Amino acid sequence: MSRKRILVINTGGTIGMIRTEHGYAPQREAFHELLKQIPELSAPVMPEWDMVDMDPLLDSSNITVFEWNAIGERIASQYHLYDGFVVLHGTDTMAYTASALSFMLRKNNKPVILTGSQIPLCEVRNDARDNLITALLIAAGSFVHEVCLYFGGKLLRGNRAIKYSADDLIAFESPNYPVLADAGIEIRYHHAALLPPCEEGFSLQRLVNIPIGVIKVFPGIQFELFDSIMTEKLKGIVIETFGAGNIPRHADSLLPIIRKACENGTIIIVCSQCPHGTVSLGAYETSSALKEAGAISGYDITTEAAVAKLYYLFSRGLTVQEIRSKMEKSLRGEVTVF
Ligand code: ASP
């Protein structure tokens, strides 16, 4: 059987950084040199792989909708030439990019695996080597038909992942959805958790940089300070509430603001500050008013996926009603709707 072909898209991030006098920074040539020194990457059990570098290589804190489109276009233009894709990416915003790609790559049937590392490949002790090798093997397997994030021995659904540790080598979690595979002595897939293949007809939805905001509720928040930005500037807002979707009672000023914003066509999604569990609007008096004012429940969606989904749905040019209805449904396994 011929070897699978994988395209590696290098966007930057710690994995390919080297030490400079100003701290770690991406460096294309040095990274390629280091990769040549890993014989396992060309072992017979490995797929054949090519690598393209984004220009410039970025620390992922600098990733924007522009780069999401560039990654999506790379995948779309080579979709029929490769069996799978590995995207090398900084960890800081990897969960956002994985979420965005999961929506942008419509009817995607191929493994698209984002990975990176906490310690660069140039260091003696690093997690880069294993993350890259295992991501390539997963991308060359035949079980994955979706956008995933592989890190520290775990394969996660991309739009369910969050970065939860700034220094652990197991830096990502999927608090509301099972792990898709564990890479121990063997790579053990949890088949029931994986998305099944979808019908043919891959296409790319490019994203438009629409104004989106995230507001985190805290005790004493003065919502009136957000009035004009919420009602006049933003098209989509994710509100990170307490627990199951609660806001402080003193925040009565929020409800007329939400009402006005919704009348102006702004979509307001209620998420939870708790990584684990779901929003349940109406379970408490402090949350039912949000629903009455026009906000939509995000259920157990991550803030990362909610932001990406808002970009995606607005970019499709849908009506406000259509966007509201799709926000409350699972499009790519990103949310559990009860
Ligand atoms: N700041 C880096 C980045 O996100 C961190 C990392 O890659 O781990 O690009």
How far from one another are the termini? 44 Å
For the biggest β-sheet, the strand order reads 4-1-5-7-8-9-12-13
> For the record, what is the CATH homologous superfamily label of the largest domain?
L-asparaginase, N-terminal domain
Number of helices: 9
Give the tally of structural domains.
Answer: 2
Number of strands: 18
Low-pLDDT regions:
none
Arithmetic mean of pLDDT = 96
- Based on helices, strands and strand pairing, what is the structural class? alpha/beta
Write the CATH fold name of the largest domain: Rossmann fold
Radius of gyration: 21 Å
So, CATH architecture of the largest domain?
3-Layer(aba) Sandwich
CATH class (first level) name of the largest domain: Alpha Beta
Strand content: 15-25%
Query: Which percent bin holds the helix content?
Result: 25-40%
Q: What can be said about the biggest beta sheet?
A: 8 strands, mixed
Model description:
With 338 residues, this protein is α/β, with parallel strands linked by helices. It folds into two domains: 5-204, 3-Layer(aba) Sandwich (Rossmann fold); 212-327, Rossmann fold, CATH 3.40.50.40. Helix content is 28%, strand content 23%. It is built from nine helices and 18 strands. The strands form five sheets. It has an eight-stranded mixed β-sheet, sandwiched between helices. A four-stranded parallel β-sheet has the order 15-16-17-18, with helices on both faces. A two-stranded antiparallel ribbon has the order 2-3. Strand 2 and strand 3 (23-26) form a beta hairpin. Helix 5 packs parallel to helix 6. The relative contact order is 0.12. The mean pLDDT is 96.
